[in-house]
Design goal:
Helix content is 51%, strand content 15%. By secondary structure, it is an alpha+beta fold. The chain has one domain: Reverse transcriptase/Diguanylate cyclase domain (Alpha-Beta Plaits, 2-Layer Sandwich).
Length: 172
């Protein structure tokens, strides 16, 4: 998250101990605050929600330390590809959310490509780092909470398609 900016000073400060990033409650508070600012400025914002693929399997096969290393590698890749004005949080056990300022879905898709390349460049001994990702922007829904919900639904669709593809490939 963009921790250098004073507008975030009222966050709970309860950073996730594993990543360490702000958590879901902080991200929701940020969305509410940014909604007020967006009402004044009209800025287009995008939200990306991503789920780290295979984290539960890594934890089960290789232990929690390997899963934590995977989370930190993903957070590091995200930080490398984000601008200073963008905000990042860990919003679930294997989920991250990003608020991309002055960005529409098309520009966010370009960021996605950079992020996925950075993620692929990070080697992790337990499993390759991949993620399921969904994006939406403020031209698609009236509030940032609805934009985030739309991005999450798109991420869930990607997850479902990948699971069905793996099941079909394994002959199940």
């Amino acid at each position: 998250m963009n921790l250098g900016m004073d507008p975030l000073s009222d966050l709970t400060g309860a950073a996730d101990p594993l990543s360490p990033l702000p958590g879901a409650a902080d991200f929701d508070a940020l969305l509410a605050r940014e909604e007020l600012r967006r009402a004044r400025t009209g800025e287009t914002l995008a939200v990306a929600v991503l789920d780290l693929d295979g984290l539960r399997a890594v934890n089960a096969r290789h232990g929690a330390a390997a899963g934590t290393a995977m989370l930190r590698a993903c957070a590091g890749s995200l930080r490398l590809t984000l601008r200073a004005v963008d905000d990042l949080a860990r919003t679930g056990p294997d989920e991250f959310s990003v608020l991309l300022h002055a960005t529409d879905s098309r520009s966010a898709a370009r960021w996605t490509g950079r992020f996925e390349e950075a993620l692929e460049d990070r080697e992790h001994p337990a499993a390759p780092l991949t993620c399921s990702l969904g994006i939406a922007d403020t031209t698609e829904a009236p509030t940032l909470m609805q934009v985030a919900a739309r991005a999450r639904r798109r991420m869930e669709v990607v997850q479902t398609v990948r699971k069905l593809r793996r099941a079909r490939e394994s002959g199940a």
